[in-house]
Amino acid sequence: MFGISVDSPYTHAAWRERLGLPAELVLLSDFNREFGRAFDLLQTPHVNLRNVLRRRLLVIDQEGTVVHLWEQSDPASLPTPDEALDALRWIQRERLEQPRAQPDVMAEEIGDEIVLFHPGHNRGYVLNPTAAFVWSCCDGTNSVEAIVNDLASVYGQPEPVVRGDVCEVLSAFHNAGLLASV
User: Fold this and answer.
1) Architecture of domain 106-175
2) What is the C-alpha to C-alpha distance for residues 15 and 165, in angstroms, rounded to an integer?
């Protein structure tokens, strides 16, 4: 696990001491914003502030694909370590499992999009064509790898690129409570 910010190694050392961070947590400096640029984390929140890193929790697999993304509108609200570990466990399990939609979620196709409504949460979701394709595969019979293969062939994209997109969409479905527990 790594903590990455634009701060210098000296600032990281001061934060490590002040917060009592364990030595196992490696703190890396992205002073030149290369990591932030590579993973689309840079933002310009104000006219005088440019290339500020967004606060996000990313889970990146061995191929460099983002398989889980945690983003909050409130920068001070990051997931707890337990929430982050739950996401990791879910990703590990779900990559081998067959995702299944919550039975009480209502879905309505509108063109190439799907609108979902979760009555238990009283929330609606509009899915773009890619997310709609993934949702249509969440019937409990398709493995994540089968969904990746199908989507890659439909869109003519390389599987590593599609795998990241599928995992990101499934993570979003999971976080929204749209998938049934296995």
Assistant:
1) Orthogonal Bundle (1.10)
2) 34
